[in-house]
Amino acid sequence: MKIILGVGGGIAAYKAAELARLLMQENHEVQAVMTAAAQEFVRPLTFAALTGRKVLTDLFAIESAIEHISVAQEHELLAIAPATADLIAKMALGLADDFLTTLYLAFTGTVVIAPAMNVNMWEHPATQANLQTLRLRGHRIVEPESGYLACGMTGPGRLADPETIAEAIRRESQKRRDFEGETVLVTAGPTQEPLDPVRYISNRSSGKMGYALAEAAAARGARVILISGPVHLAPPRGVELVPVRTAVEMREKVFEHLGPASIVVKAAAVADFHLSKVPDHKVKKTAARISLELDPTPDILAELGRKKGDRVLIGFAAETQNLAQEARRKLDSKNCDMVVGNLVGASESGFESDLNEVILVMRTGETVALPRALKREIADRIFDQVLKLRLALHAAHGR
Ligand code: CTP
Fold first, then answer.
1. Which of 79, 83, 175, 96 is nearest to 131 (CA)?
2. Mutation test of ligand 1: which of 295, 330, 331, 336 has the most ligand atoms closer than 8 Å to its C-beta?
3. Predicted TM-score of the model (pTM)
4. What is the distance between the alpha carbons of residues 193 and 203, in angstroms, rounded to a whole number?
5. For the segment 208-260, what is each residue's pLDDT rounded down to a tens digit?
6. Which candidate among 71, 79, 250, 294 keeps its CA 20 to 30 Å from the CA of 174?
């Protein structure tokens, strides 16, 4: 593999030399990039000798005027070790004032980040918020170890062992492209059902689970079509976003884009009822009480179940009770291959949260419980199960 090793300016920079050696031993091509601060701790010559390549350091060197772009395009994985609090903050914000941070912005491959810093800097809410941003972007953070730090304090902040970082790189590179050739259609977010030109009915879905699924599938090499209700999230890099508002619009776009899809994930919280005839003008406060008469929306998942053909169809069941039972009922009644069930209403998971805790109910009869984790992590576990499930279903059909 072609790997960029970005070295940040911390006392742990010397350990990055050991990481470079390990990666070279595994026959990777390693291109080292050092920040100005990193060169205060270790000389570029160390990395040049270990990797057999000129170390990139200067954004303004004549020969490297656009090199950060070509280097970004030519490599598959960017490992940053040690990642200082400053580098992490710059990456989270998208600041690009040197070779490494500019290259990071231009880079579209897999990113592995191994932080190292003083324990108070590590625990600072700013650093933790920045790390969370990077995790949600799908980057792999190799947690620092706890122990005696160069500053004389004890606690988390020590760069992970080079062997541990190399192992994380190995794992990330293996799962990188296992969805190549797939087209994944994901629906996400709530729908809004208008009551008049200024009011609507909706629900608490933030879209975070669906966007995490879209991000994960794209990171693993799939073409991703993301049909999204109104949310406050930036679309993940590389996905084709199709914005919609109502259940009826979502249905229309789903069937318009179904053709090439091999996997369909219905993570959207689609409204079950709507006003089929929306007044043209704002409803006035003239009566003491009004009542709404609502009609059912089209059940997109059920229709997909009837028309899915060979596709893997994944539904969602957000429940406040009887989770497993309800998830299995929906799997059967809507002809899904998998239903992801989650309890909503509980704190710290489900709607609006970055975390989720789900069960996967499968057509094969199997049920898998995924413990509470970041939605981005849950998304990868769901896709791991999709691959297994498809193999099991093909084997059962003798294909
Ligand atoms: N769904 C859909 N179209 C609808 C309603 C729901 O495609 N009009 C999909 C959702 O995207 C989700 C799944 O159906 O994948 C489950 O949604 P939910 O509202 O929990 O299911 P319902 O069938 O409405 O079941 P119930 O209201 O009985 O819980």
1. 83
2. 330
3. 0.82
4. 10
5. 999 999 999 998 999 999 999 999 999 998 899 999 999 999 999 999 999 99
6. 71
